[in-house]
Amino acid sequence: MDKERLKELAGNPKFTSGIYNYCDRWCERCQFTSRCLNFAVSEEHFDSSDKSTRNYKTEGANKHDLNNAEFWEKLHEMLQITRDMINEMAEREGIDLNAIDEEEFKQREKLREEVVENHECAVMGQEYIDLVNEWFESSDELFEKRAEELNLKVSLELPNENPVEEANILSDSIEIIRWYQHQIYVKTSRALHGQIDEEDELLEDFPKDSDGSAKVALIGIDRSIVAWGILHSNFPEQEDSTLKILLHLERLRKKIESTFPSARAFVRPGFDEMDTYKQD
Q: Whole-structure pTM over 0.85, yes or no?
C-alpha cells in the first residue's frame, strides 16, 4: 500500500469517521468492521492473499502473529507512509514539527504520568489485573474438574442438559475476562491523560475524548462483571475470590463514573448510532 492508496481509502464515505477511536480493538467480535478504516487498512496492507477465499475470524490470529517478520516489515512501511502524510500536513499548515522544548516536554510528561499512575482509578485498574492473574493461577485443577463434568454429561446424554452450550458459555466468559483484563486499565489511564489535557481547553459544548475512553473502560467492566458472574456459578469453590473480584469491579465502575460523570452519555461514532449505520 502506498500513500495515495491510503488517502483513497480515507476518503471513502462508507467508513465511519473516528469509529476506531473508541472501540475495544476486538475486531473478531465486532459487527462494524465494514465501517472501520483501520480495519480496512490492516486487511489490505497486512494481507496479500485472496480476500474472496479467506475468513478473517478464523485466520486473524495467524495473520497478526507478532513473531512474523513480514508483519513487522509491513508495519514499518505503514509507519513511514503515515509520517510522510504528517509532514505534508504540517508543511501545508505552516507547522514546525521541530519547534518543541524537549526538556520541558519530558518534564511535563513525567508529571502527567505520576498523576495518572497514582490516581485511584488507575491503581484499582492495575489491582484488577493482578486479581485476575491470581484467580486463574489458583484455578487450574478446577477447570480440569469442570471439563470432566461436562464431558460426562455429553456421554450420558442427559435430558434437559446442554453441556456443549455450557462449555461454550464458559469459554466465552473466560475470553471476555482475558480480553478486558488489561484494557480496562489502559483505557482508564488514557481517559485520565485526556482529562488532564482538557483542563486548559474550552470544551463545555463539545464531547470530551476522555469521556469516550472512560466509556470504553466502563463497557469492558460491564462485560467482565457478567463474565465473572458466569464463572461464579460454575466454580462455587472459588466463591470468595470471585466475589472479591466482582466487588472490586463494581467499586472501580462507580469510581470511573464519578470521575467521568458524562462518560455513559458519550456517543461513540458508529457504535452508539446503530440505527444510522446499517450493515452492508
A: no
